[in-house]
Q: What sequence folds into this?
């Protein structure tokens, strides 16, 4: 049985030149962070959330299997780091790396664009 491109894509390191789908920087960036769940997880990490239970309780309602897969992708791409939780044995906390923090202006630009161009939007999660 042949695997779908999406499932094999999730298992490879997307930010290596030999595995890029395209040399276009827009396409390569979208391969790393271009789905809505990844961007919303990054938004929540910028807002100070760090635990799985906090991320899964975001208002958009991410499914647990999708959250786990996206966290794994973000860790493997170097956007976030997982550290053992000091509060709960066997649990991890997720923190933005320098590479992940460099996406801050991108998320701010998306927020500002949405506020200016999508009627009915409002800031409910404060990104610091």
A:
């Amino acid at each position: 049985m042949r695997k779908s491109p999406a499932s094999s894509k999730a298992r490879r390191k997307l930010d290596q030149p030999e595995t890029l789908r395209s040399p276009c920087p827009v396409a390569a960036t979208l391969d790393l962070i271009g789905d809505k769940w990844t961007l919303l997880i990054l938004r929540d990490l910028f807002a100070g959330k760090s635990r799985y239970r906090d991320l899964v309780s975001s208002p958009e309602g991410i499914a647990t299997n999708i959250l786990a897969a996206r966290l794994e992708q973000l860790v493997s791409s170097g956007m976030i780091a997982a550290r053992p939780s000091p509060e709960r044995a066997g649990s991890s906390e997720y923190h933005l790396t320098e590479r992940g923090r460099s996406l801050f202006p991108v998320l701010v630009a998306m927020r500002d664009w949405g506020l200016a161009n999508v009627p009915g939007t409002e800031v409910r999660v404060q990104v610091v």
